[in-house]
From TrEMBL:
InterPro entries: ODR-4-like. One of its GO terms (cellular component) is membrane. It comes from the Eukaryota. Its main location: membrane. The keyword Transmembrane helix applies. The chain crosses the membrane at residues 397-417. PANTHER family: PROTEIN ODR-4 HOMOLOG. This is Protein odr-4 homolog. Keywords: Membrane, Transmembrane, Transmembrane helix.
Length: 419
């Protein structure tokens, strides 16, 4: 038996509206959450048209003309705007009846390309038991008939499997929210033996080491360490089988474990450095979890990934901005502070879920509104933009220094005595 996709009713209306457009086909992304029993689709987002298509009104009539690179670039941008617990679950094509025969081949190519694009940026690896099926949704623009199939993205030779597509009203109206603030203080040395530093690459390597600390951290939910297999809602008052929509697990604390233990001894390595990168500050993190008897491990996993993603994404956005506006690859920094972009959240109508984005301090609300309209096909009012990190509560900043230094590396080595 195939997977079941429980879908927000508004998604069905959105797809129906897109099918009335006078175009041979429309492609897009499906956004939602995976669980062991079923998957949840809360948003569908069409692929934005390219500028040249807008200007001269190009309407390609064959699916072979789909710009795969453009679709995957859109998926990468959208994945940055998803808080913990949400991901790109699949792709859809709305096509005229004469293109139906080619739709599944096109969907298969897009699914694997999109998955490759959104996963190559991640600093975390999926767990072995995680769902690796992704949805391929085919909609006929004339009859509105829907065919949903899945492909296992871990298997390049995977064949299509049938899946159920079921609509439900107010699907994510009462999803659970987990919030936390994580204090960051990461020191990344630039070794003197590597004179031509790739700052972005060095930063990513440093974040890779830090992400392993987050993976090994202990999470307190409402001041308690809970068993991974326990139900998240255990002991909480429920309302008609669902937790009240106003309830949030706002008191989530992250405790980073010390690597030293009684069974380890330490050694040190001295390395001469020509500079360093320091990431320091506080970042707001958030994850959303479905309310169908979620497990503690699902919630913690979603929040861990948001912590890792949000810092990695901010650094990526900063370097992109520096390269575009200042030519980072040619600039020789000596000592400079750079404030990482702030996080913001925007509500989704009829849902407790909010989508995310990032802004620099000099970025106007109009630019954010344009980005949401282009990337998520969502009109946003200026008053609905909620800045998560205000200036007086702390930014996260990046400090670049090309002054010589010496770094003392400590590593801990396991050893055993055999008698």
């Amino acid at each position: 038996m195939g997977r079941t996709y429980v879908v927000e009713e508004a998604v069905g209306q959105y797809l129906s509206d897109l099918s009335t457009k006078l175009k041979p086909y429309v492609t897009g992304l499906l956004i939602g959450q995976c669980s062991s029993q079923r998957d949840y689709v809360i948003r569908a987002v069409r692929t934005p048209p390219k500028e040249e298509q807008n200007e001269i009104n190009i309407n390609p009539s064959k699916l072979s003309s789909i710009d795969e690179e453009w679709v995957t670039a859109h998926a990468s941008q959208v994945s940055r705007m998803l808080p913990g617990g949400l991901l790109v679950l699949g792709v859809f094509i709305i096509a005229a009846p004469e293109l139906a025969k080619d739709s599944q081949n096109a969907l298969r190519k897009l699914i694997f390309s999109v998955e490759k694009s959104v996963t190559k940026r991640r600093l975390w690896k999926p767990a072995e038991e995680e769902v690796s099926d992704r949805a391929a949704l085919q909609v006929c623009s004339a009859t509105k008939k829907i065919v949903c199939r899945t492909y296992d993205v871990q298997d390049p030779k995977s064949s299509a499997k049938p899946a159920d597509w079921k609509y439900q009203s107010a699907l994510s109206a009462c999803w659970l929210t987990l919030d936390c603030t994580v204090n960051v203080n990461i020191h990344i040395p630039l070794l003197a033996t590597s004179p031509n530093h790739d700052l972005e690459k060095n930063t990513k390597n440093g974040l890779n080491r830090w992400s392993k600390q987050i993976e090994d951290s202990v999470f307190l939910i409402n001041g308690q360490v809970k068993d991974n297999d326990a139900e998240l809602l255990e002991g909480l008052k429920k309302l008609r089988g669902n937790i009240q929509s106003s309830t949030q697990f706002s008191d989530v604390k992250v405790l980073t474990q010390l690597s030293q233990g009684s069974s380890r001894r330490s050694t040190a390595t001295v390395q001469v450095c020509s500079g360093s990168i320091n990431l320091k500050g506080a970042v707001k993190c958030r994850a959303y979890i479905h309310n169908n008897r979620p497990k503690v491990k699902e919630a913690i996993q979603a929040l861990k990934r948001d912590i890792i993603n949000t810092l990695s994404d901010r650094c990526e956005i900063l370097f992109e901005d520096l390269i575009i506006n200042e030519g980072l690859d040619k600039k020789n920094f000596e000592r400079e502070y750079r404030v990482l972009p702030q996080r913001l959240f925007v509500p989704v109508a009829g849902s407790s879920v909010m989508l995310s984005d990032y802004k620099f301090r000099d970025e106007a609300a109009g630019e954010i509104q344009e980005r949401f309209l282009e990337m998520l096909d969502q009109a946003v009012q200026a008053e609905d933009i909620h800045i998560a990190e205000e200036a007086n509560t702390g930014y996260c900043f990046l400090f670049l220094s090309h002054l010589a230094c010496v770094v003392l590396w400590f590593c801990f080595v396991f050893f055993s005595i055999q008698v």
